[in-house]
Structure formats: structure tokens, C-alpha cells
Write a structure and sequence with these properties.
elongated
Length: about 210
């Protein structure tokens, strides 16, 4: 029998949604590599021809690299958020599914961005990144505002840190789009800035913890 929360909402075990999260992220991360293939019609009889074909793959390789680590970062974020959760409710489930829809769409956006060095391709990629960021932020807000779902409530500092990381990703994605107008196909390097967001979020969380002490 499903347990009920104090407000009458069903409390659902979190393990099945975590398994779904792991499965979809694993499949999405695997699908990214499908675009990394040499042209089937190409004549690669010489070393020079092979090197030329590999050089032509560099935009797709860059898109794969960025997208793989983007998915890894969002998977870690989901794992971190669900570490607070004891039970899920329908709201949390649907918000998580919204996040997963963005993750499942990223291989398509990555393929478009890698194949077409254009502002439109960058816009598609940026849109999916913002989708992922917003849905992750909504999951965090739901967990923070419903402590009854949690084994231990999410602190204000942890929530603010998630906000900083989510808005940081959105800002980086918007910056990549702007750069894409000037230098199409070269904006993905900006996503390396995402690796600065984890220590920045940790600093915000520590600051709130010190203020509460």
C-alpha cells in the first residue's frame, strides 16, 4: 500500500525513478557517439585522406565532448538532489520526467550543433541546455519546499547553490549563443566554464552554513 503524506498525497518510492534517471542518462550519453563516424562514401586509402577525414570530424567531436560532460554534470546534479529524498510525490515525479525529456533530447541537439556550424544549430543546443537547467531548478525547488518528502531537508544554502549552478548554466548557454552569431561552430568552447560552477555553488552553500551557525 502506498503511504500518504500529511496533505493526502501519495508517497512513492524513489528507487524506480532513480533507475529511470540512470537508464535515460546512460542511453543519451551512449547515443552521442553515434555521430562520430567517418563518411561511408569517402575513399580513405591513404594516411593523408584519413587525417583529413578525422579533421573534418573535429566539430562533431567537440560537440560530443561538451554534451557528454554536460549530461554527466546534470546526472550528478540529479543524484545530489535525490540524496535528500526519502519518498517522491507526483509533482516531483513529473518534474523529474521533464528533466529527463531534456536529457533525451540532447543527443539530437548535439548532432545538429555538430553537423551545422550555424547560429540556428547553436540556438537549438542552447534551448535544450536551458530546458535542462530550468527543469533541474524546478526539481530542487520542489524538494526544498516539501521537506516531508526528505530524509533530511534541503538547507537554504544547498538550494541557493543549486540556483547559482542552474542560472550559471543558462548564462553560459546564452553566451554561447551570442558567440555563435560572431563565430558559428566555435562557441561550444564556452561550455568549459561549467566546471567553475561546482566550486562556486559550494562557496555559496558554505556561506549560508556559516551565516546560520
Amino acid at each position: 500500500m502506498t503511504d500518504l503524506s500529511p496533505d493526502g498525497q501519495p508517497q512513492l518510492g524513489k528507487h524506480r525513478i532513480e533507475a529511470l534517471v540512470d537508464g535515460i542518462f546512460a542511453v543519451a550519453m551512449t547515443l552521442l557517439v553515434i555521430e562520430l563516424r567517418l563518411p561511408e562514401h569517402a575513399h580513405l586509402a591513404t594516411e593523408a585522406a584519413l587525417r583529413e577525414a578525422l579533421v573534418e570530424l573535429l566539430p562533431k567531436l567537440m560537440s560530443w565532448l561538451v554534451s557528454f560532460f554536460v549530461l554527466a554534470i546534470f546526472w550528478i546534479a540529479n543524484h545530489r538532489l535525490y540524496s535528500y529524498v526519502r519518498h517522491a510525490d507526483p509533482g516531483l515525479l513529473w518534474l523529474t520526467i521533464l528533466s529527463l525529456s531534456g536529457a533525451s533530447l540532447l543527443p539530437f541537439a548535439s548532432a545538429v550543433n555538430g553537423q551545422f556550424a550555424s547560429t540556428t544549430g547553436q540556438a537549438v543546443y542552447t534551448g535544450v541546455m536551458i530546458w535542462l537547467s530550468v527543469s533541474t531548478l524546478l526539481v530542487a525547488r520542489h524538494i526544498h519546499r516539501h521537506p516531508g518528502l526528505c530524509a533530511h531537508p534541503m538547507s537554504l544554502g544547498a538550494y541557493r547553490a543549486t540556483m547559482v549552478r542552474s542560472f550559471g548554466v543558462m548564462s553560459i548557454a546564452a553566451l554561447a549563443l551570442l558567440i555563435g552569431y560572431v563565430a558559428p561552430g566555435k562557441a561550444n568552447i564556452v561550455f568549459a566554464l561549467m566546471f567553475t560552477l561546482r566550486p562556486l555553488g559550494a562557496r555559496v552553500e558554505r556561506r549560508y552554513a556559516q551565516a546560520a551557525a
